[in-house]
Design a protein that fits this description.
Layout: H1 9-12, E1 24-26, E2 42-43, E3 49-50, E4 54-56, H2 65-73, E5 77-80, H3 86-97, E6 103-104, H4 116-126, E7 131-134, E8 143-147, H5 149-152, E9 173-174, H6 179-189, E10 193-197, E11 203-208, H7 209-214, E12 232-235, H8 240-251, E13 255-258, H9 266-278, E14 283-289, H10 292-301, E15 305-308, H11 318-322, H12 328-341, E16 348-351, H13 357-365, E17 370-373, H14 375-378, E18 387-390, E19 393-399, H15 404-407, E20 429-433, H16 438-456, H17 461-470, E21 475-477, H18 480-485, E22 493-496, E23 501-504
Parallel strand pairs: 4-5, 4-17, 5-12, 9-10, 12-13, 13-14, 14-15, 15-16, 16-17
Antiparallel strand pairs: 1-21, 2-3, 6-11, 7-8, 10-11, 18-19, 19-20, 22-23
Amino acid sequence: MAEPDGLDAASLFLEGMGITYGDFILLPGYIDFQVSDVDLESRLTRNIRLKHPVVSSPMDTVTESRMAINMALLGGIGIIHYNNTIPEQAEHVRKVKRFENGFISDPVVLGPNNTIADVYRIRALHGFSGIPITEDGTMKGRLVGIVTRRDIDFEQDRSKRLGDFMTREVITAPVGVTLHQANEILRRSKKGKLPIVDKDERLVSLVSRNDLLKNEDFPNATKDSNKQLRVGAAIGTKPQDRDRLEALVETGVDVVVIDSSQGWSAFQIEMIRFIKQRHPDLDVIGGNVVCRNQAEALIEAGADALRIGMGPGSICITQETMAAGRAQAGAVYHVAKFARHHKRNVPVIADGGIRGIGDIAKAVAVGSGAVMMGSLLAGTTEAPGDYFYEGGVRLKRYRGMASLEAMAKGGDKRYFSEDDVIKVPQGVSGAVVDRGSVVQFIPYLMHGLRHSLQDLGYKSLEALHEALYSGRLRFEKRSASAQREGGVHGLHSYEDPNMGFIRRAGDR
């Protein structure tokens, strides 16, 4: 048999040179199975498994309840940010744990005094226009009507009140109706929306025909033993975070992430120990770390998983501002190898630097059990914030938690700078392109990842990791010219399938 080409991981990641995802490529393996045979199940923590190795980042422009619900339905998990009050974060967790597939627990609602212009604004932002009308324009208000597209399409004056156009005789269903029953009511009535109301006719939730057709079944959903969706939440290491922890535990949170840019601190070690002593069955993800000695300290303190990354994110400038961090692929490889062979066998999450399918494949190939994504998800429908247009492109705001903008809202808690008089940003604010709904985007990423594993010749992430540590998985370094050759070149312009718009060939 011929000698294998390329390098094993130990040779590629020799100490002394920072290696990131673009600096290497994986060599192909033998294919004797179908793409559909690839199993992407992995460990998030020592006790929690995911059908798909994807986690949404605890950033205030990425993960609140809507994102977390959909990430869990799609086989991953969302981590609720903590740039908010304790009751606000707990409520986001509560919404996820109480979610019933098909029922929209926080629909967009307007009041009779809102105008037709408000409906068009919502349609432009969210893509729908069937909106319940309550007497006070809020959830839990008494339902008084509903406005759909057909009610207002031929009205030219957009300043008119919705109370003059709304349909007042609304078909509703009572609290406790099953999804099957709701679907049958929609089918018989030929309506697009079904408000769910309590005995006082107050709006509780909404069922949408489009959502039923689109999201009828989620066989890969991440659920606990009570068949509720799993959800994580971020906390800090301040004394008040102990109160935050208790509120989250009371709402049923499945895992907490100690959210720190540099996790090797006495404060985090003390917090992990406190959590494991007070709530031994609650899984804790420690981090962020990039070195083995950092990892060892947090594992010994009781961490059930580690979050790896210090400065690789698209909006993070920690490495250039603080001169501290590590190239991401090398950090993942070295920490994952150490954590796997530690007596507690702790999985790791690659956090940052993920630009698409190829980076996800490389992250899991060098040892991560899952990838945490920020910028890739910030442009989706389910991320917090509104869309806007710039240069004809539909965008959403995205900011680092150490940007001056986020720090003003409390994001500096994870950077040990909450009490600083002078703020030194380690992140920036920007915008990302609209990626549509995660309901379509995550399956697209995961199907691409299955194709990648097929090209490598491995049917599961566990088999891939076994090959990594045995030396059978082979790598090759890439020069700058090789990286250019592997991308689009020689064209004046092209349509980027991952971005959804035309790019000039010189764009990055």
